[in-house]
Specification:
α3 (about 65-80) packs parallel to α4. The chain is built from eight helices and seven strands, in the order βαβαβαβαβαβααβα. It is an alpha/beta fold. β5, α5 (about 155-175) and β6 (about 180-185) form a beta-alpha-beta unit. The chain has one domain: NAD(P)-binding Rossmann-like Domain (Rossmann fold), CATH 3.40.50.720. Helix content is about 45%, strand content about 15%.
């Protein structure tokens, strides 16, 4: 491997947004650590595709909700490459329950919130110590606009809102060490997790997209890569919405808006 390459560690990079981001960053010159928890074949496919395009990558198994496994993962990356330049906390650690509030089980609710934060907490804690020594590095958290949308799955919304707040605190902690921290909050992205959403849902979101189409993982990956770019270095502690213009168009197309035109 070219030792001059920057090292990017991406959690949950075997599928969907994580996989697309791994490919995008590899194409921009990063050596990518494709973290996965259980699907080794999917992670291997991502690595193979990156290498077929002339990039470099490697798969690395670890459950990011397990502190010991994260410690071992980060130690191994540092031992092999000497540094970590970019951490992307992307893994969907727990699928949210979609029950109504009246039927929602507390344990399921708590598991989603706990899992969301644990995956980012452990990765951040172990990686930030390396970035502090380097006096450089970037951390990007993958969140959702559901964090401030009423009517979405409550556990998912609360978990992402908590992640957004966590990320802003980390940005403050990391700033004095030259580490840039931001969050990218996506609207509905067409992935394995959302593919079963109703056609009415996708029509509604597509009608309120600037591009008049669904947001795909490749679109999400390009947005993350832009935030990772050096030109973004003067921005830290921000939650950046990427939703295809849905928020403004949804309000613009609301019937009440006609009264003010």
């Amino acid at each position: 491997m070219n030792q001059s390459k920057r090292i990017a560690l991406i959690s949950g990079a075997g599928r969907n947004i994580g996989a697309a981001t791994a490919k995008e960053l590899a194409g921009r010159g990063y050596h990518v650590i494709v973290n996965y928890r259980s699907d080794a074949d999917a992670a291997a496919e991502v690595v193979t595709e990156i290498e077929s395009r002339g990039g470099t990558a490697e798969a690395a198994r670890a459950d990011v909700c397990d502190a010991d496994e994260v410690d071992a993962l980060v130690r191994r990356v540092r031992a092999d490459h000497g540094r970590i330049d970019l951490l992307i906390c992307n893994a969907n650690t727990v699928t949210p329950p979609f029950a109504s509030f009246a039927e929602l089980d507390w344990d399921a609710f708590a598991a989603k919130v706990n899992g969301e934060l644990a995956g980012s907490f452990f990765l951040t804690q172990h990686t930030l110590s390396i970035m502090r020594e380097q006096r450089s590095g970037k951390i990007i958290y993958i969140s959702s606009t559901a964090s401030d949308t009423i009517g979405m799955a409550l556990p998912h919304s609360v978990a992402k809102a908590a992640l957004n707040t966590f990320s802003r605190h980390i940005a403050g902690i990391a700033a004095e060490h030259g580490v840039i921290v931001n969050t990218v909050a996506f609207g509905a992205v067409h992935t394995d997790a959302t593919s079963e959403f109703s056609e009415n849902f996708w029509k509604y979101t597509t009608d309120r997209s600037v591009a008049a189409r669904r947001v795909e993982p490749a679109d999400a990956a390009r947005a993350v890569a832009l935030v990772a770019d050096d030109g973004f270095g003067f921005t830290s502690g921000q939650v950046i919405r990427v939703d295809g213009g849905f928020e403004v168009l949804d309000q613009q197309l609301h019937p009440l808006t006609e009264s003010f035109r």
